[in-house]
Protein 1
Amino acid sequence: MPGTTYTQHALTLPSYPRGSHLITSDITSQLSTPLEDVKVGLLHLFLQHTSCAMSLNENWDSDVRKDMSDSLDKIVVEDKAGKGIYRHDAEGSDDMPAHIKSSLIGASVSIPITDGRLAFGTWQGIWFLEFRDGKHRRKVMATIQGERP
């Protein structure tokens, strides 16, 4: 039936180690409303955590993900020596840097849907950036709004 619809999906990402990970297929495989059912619309993804992030970036060369993680670690350093550079340190030396990196990168992305497909640019994919050392089960709220054919 034609018309504008809104659906939400609570998704759970697999546990990923610290680093930058391509998760496009993790996201699309969990959507209970097929993208093919949307003629024109928007997929909005919101990461429900404060120590990891989401981004749109290179989906072909995995070195880009490694370089991104290395660069963020240089920009926002950990206090592994316990010198007290952060007040918030009760959860470990990686926690406060994770919050800072999350604020720098962001917790959400929006991708246009065109004729039932995500309208990525060349080489784009959905990234998940885990900033903590321990593995965590991260939750994403996916909202699809769009016109059905």
Note: Residues 16 and 135 are 6 Å apart (CA to CA).
Protein 2
Amino acid sequence: MLQNARFSLVHIPLHRYKAYLQPILRLIFPVDPPNEGAQHGFQWANRYPFLNISITPTECSIVCLKSLAEELFNTTAISTTNSNDAMIFSEDLVVMSVEGEGLEAGKRVLELTSPLALVGISIFFITTYFSDYIIVPAKSKGQVVQALEERGFQFEERAEAYVNPAAGHNRNRSSTSSFGHLSPSTPPPTTVDELQTRTFALLEGHGILPKVDADIRLLQCAGRRNDSDGSLTDEMAIQVGLTKCFLYQPRFLSLTLTENEAVSLLLDRRLISNFGPNNVLLGNKEDFLIPIMLDLQPLPLEATGIVCGVAGKLAGSPADGPLSTAIEILYLSTARTGTVMVEEKDLAHALEVLRAENKNV
């Protein structure tokens, strides 16, 4: 059961990626039997309650079951102290599925993360093609449940997810997102505006500037979640495509596997050809997303999670003044990197908002 499983966060520097390629592939393609509850037609994709593997221009980041992290990565001598080598973060994590339907992607993430950030709870927030997932320290699970319930969310046994009955049911395009806490050594902010102010002050103080590589254009895609006659063929094509992607160390790729949904991908447009000519992936192949990346490695580990504040500014909170026009934003927050993704048409405006907060941008 997703709610009771324990997960670990693994960080692998890019210069060590090849050394850990075999454990990564073993994680994606396990040889043991699938879960009994896996949906027919998606047995390979539904082996785990939750798995996310993300590769960005600065790192490889993995969220997986704690037992698998210890089995696959400890045996390859991962250091827990040297930031120049791979590391397994010591904090036990839990994954909670949350439905925030009826809101634009940016507003949905703010609705879910802001109440947790304001009570000082660290979160890792991942929105897949199908669902939203909050990843929190196991010790904070009770506080997270309380904060969500105070915000109107209720746990739905059938979906094994927290849902907001007040929200609609027309899901807008999804994304991947973010830690929502600045540092456990300081009192949590009292308002979203204060959270944003602290975020940009911390970034500027450590010389962290948003970087844009316009050569990277991303697509959000997914496997098919029905049991069509061609599902086995599609599944094989997806497995072959993923193998090609990971073998050649992609510049940008985020893979999410869960026990109830099909494969979810956020990937560099140049990787789409690895999946063959038969259109095995869902998603619009024409609308590209541009990543705005924050390399958070200069920050102490406990400060990871700045994207929530940056995303709040871009989404246009009420006190933002003349630049408060909301930008449609998607997110990916990994172990040591924060990424905000915007449509090409919104890139200039997003950078304008960031420049208004940081004179060094």
Note: The longest strand covers residues 7-13.
